[in-house]
Amino acid sequence: WLALNDVIGDESRVQVGLAAMFLGVCILNTLGLMLAKFLGDAHVTGLRRALGASRKHIIRQHLTEVVVVGLVGGMVGIVFAWLGLWAIRVLTFIPGPNDSPDRLVMAQSLSHMDLRMLGLALLISMVTGIVAGLYPAWRIGRAAPATFLKT
User: Fold this and answer.
1) Mean local confidence (pLDDT), 19-33
2) Closest CA to 55 of 147, 144, 151
3) DSSP characters for 56-76?
């Protein structure tokens, strides 16, 4: 409907590009936060390594944590998106005395979320969580346990 009525212009492409750049900045920010968190708990990781945990187990544990954080963030984002779509639906369709049911159907069709969108949102949040957590998990997994046991 938007393409047929020539509603989408070149501004939309610019906005998609800006959104992709914002996602990149968010991934870098998450990477920094995860790195600080993992290195802050490095003494616990060093103790686990000294007690026999392999590097693979340490990396797997931290990647699991990152995936859970990504999924929880994705679910919170879905709740905010659903609330935003609800607000758009309410503000778009303000009932009047001579309204047709077609206007209500149009308002609901432009502001809904289907299962494919939900799945894609969760997938994107999980993938971005993994991308943001790969380096911190690898870095903490490669750390020598003796360094952290001294402190």
Assistant:
1) 90
2) 144
3) HHHHHHHHHHHHHHHHHHHHH
pTM: 0.72
Which of 37, 44, 41, 40 shows the shortest CA–CA distance to 66? Answer: 37
Is the predicted pLDDT of residue 21 greater than 90, yes or no? Answer: yes
- Distance between CA 59 and CA 34 in Å, rounded? 13
What is the number of alpha carbons within 13 Å of residue 18 lying toward its C-beta? 6
Q: CA-to-CA distance for 119 and 108, rounded, in angstroms?
A: 20
